[in-house]
Amino acid sequence: MTTESTRSIDRADIATLRAAVRGAVHRPADPGYQTIAFNVAVSRRPWAVVDVLDADDVAAVVEFAAVNAMTVAVHCTGHGATPIDGTTLLVRTGKLDRLHVDSAARTARVGAGLRWQSVIDATAPLGLAPVCGSAPGVGVVGLLTGAGVGPMVRALGSAADYAREFTVVTGDGTIRRVAPDENAELFWGLRGGKATLGIVVEAVIDLLPLRFFYGGALYFDGDDAAAVLYAWHAWTQTLPDDADTSIALLRLPDVPGVPPVLAGRLTVAVRFASLADPEAGAAILAPMRDVAQPILDAVAQMPYAAIGAIHADPTDPVPAFEDSILLRDLTAETIAAVLGQVGPTVQSPLLMAEIRLLGGALARPAAEHRAFCHPNAVANVQVVGVLAPPIAELVPGAVESLVAAFAPFSDGARLANFAASSDPAVIASCYDEDTRAWLAALARQHDPAGVLAVGQVVR
Description:
This protein has helices at residues 3-11, 14-20, 55-67, 116-123, 140-145, 153-156, 184-190, 225-236, 278-289, 332-342, 395-405, 424-428, 433-446, and strands at residues 25-26, 48-51, 71-75, 88-92, 99-102, 107-111, 163-169, 175-178, 199-206, 212-221, 243-251, 266-274, 296-303, 320-327, 350-357, 379-386. It is globular and about 65 Å long. The protein is an alpha+beta fold.
């Protein structure tokens, strides 16, 4: 940062910002200054936190930042947060909680402060459902802007495929309606480009007539890991496009909320979701049920509102170190690499190593182009460790080692929603060269002062 920029920030007047917005503004010494991300290992100490109430508030924050040589970041739940410091204003969207469901049109207008579970709970009584991610506790907008790969991505495609329009504030402080028929280039870039092109205030999404699914997870003892993983790999080769699955090696701690049968040991979870009827879904899953005796069989017909049960992601903030990588090949050698790093013969400090099968609807062309660049990847790998004593020092090396073991089966690409980072190299891995160039050009056009050039954005 230049000396001139530093002086501008030093001169910034909090009273001016407070007068410009209707929402509350919090400086570090104020009680409302809460900046903790879902990943509590991420350091976030913004110059101020603003609880915006509408698009005008967001625009005012952006304009204040431009005048004072600051940047603006956005927070809903803190999933996917990246570090920020005292040169940044943090827009908190929790007050943007409007939800309007049009059951006749099968759409929902969703404020940027809402989580997927809120939308699911409001639409379920109408027999409708949004296409969401694996963790319904995350924010709607964050998932959409990262394209959105959920537990039914093979059957239904990405969540971003169901976005109809956005209300967004671009880096020049302009409030824009963004849809296929208006600001079409921004519509392309918002669905995959994360916060590169603006701060989304509201989104309109399509809803599907879904009440139930057949799915959940089979959990196996770690001693059966090799048999289960090799069988899973063979099974995926014949899986229909409308069935979804992932497999995860888990070392869950013995803490409240973790079933005792899974706690303090290595287990293998085979996640499964199908829109087929229960009898047909059970027939598809049968080969995996026969591999070994599950220690917990949590697969059944479920209401769509219980979709979070498939992955059972944690809901409480944790200090995490994680990484991901997309696979171009999924072979027996890939499985051997996993077992060599986190299998039953290894004392691994990692919480989870997951392989999520892709393809199906995700690989087919979308009705509207989006900034999603890796439709032909066969699987996504996510690796997570918890930075807690006594294993904290071991976790980063273990994550990096496992990701490196997948390198022979990957081009090094990542999915944006699995790559929370401000590292330009990591961000670049989420896009092909043409997409990066076009996102950067649009950012220069709509954010000439670089107000939004912070965090996971392309520049």
